[in-house]
Amino acid sequence: MLTEILINLFERDLSRLEEEIMAYDTEAAIWRIPEGIKNPAGNLALHLCGNLQHFTGAILGKNGYVRQRELEFSTRDVPRQDLINMIGVTRRVVLTVILGLTAEDMEKTYPEKVFASEMSTGHFLVHLSTHLNYHLGQINYHRRLTK
């Protein structure tokens, strides 16, 4: 049951992330940093892909992904199509890993301590979904602000 819910949420919200990036009028607007904004949409998209690929692909899926978190926020001017491709790869990784988890896996403690206390894998995946949604809202605001 939780697996189906998570698949639905990640599929929906990663599709929305692609739609938001595609909705920018220009590629330059994806990287614009208006006053009062810390991270442009491009960096938030890179961050979301790195975050999800690390915590699902590398930790749960053991696929060898190596995260470079500092580059998620310092890299600039990645072409829109490259961002879309990264989101697509991230979607496939996340959905494949989640589909491979059993109900028992969801109840197990997430294998890496991320916060002050341990939590189940299912709980942490819900957290990752809300993290995605939080930044998705920021990207939506950024896009409308830069029009």
From TrEMBL:
Top-level lineage group: Bacteria
Entry-linked SUPFAM superfamilies: DinB/YfiT-like putative metalloenzymes
Residues annotated as domain DinB-like: 10-139
Protein name from the UniProt record: DinB family protein
Taxonomic lineage from the root: Bacteria, Pseudomonadati, Bacteroidota, Chitinophagia, Chitinophagales
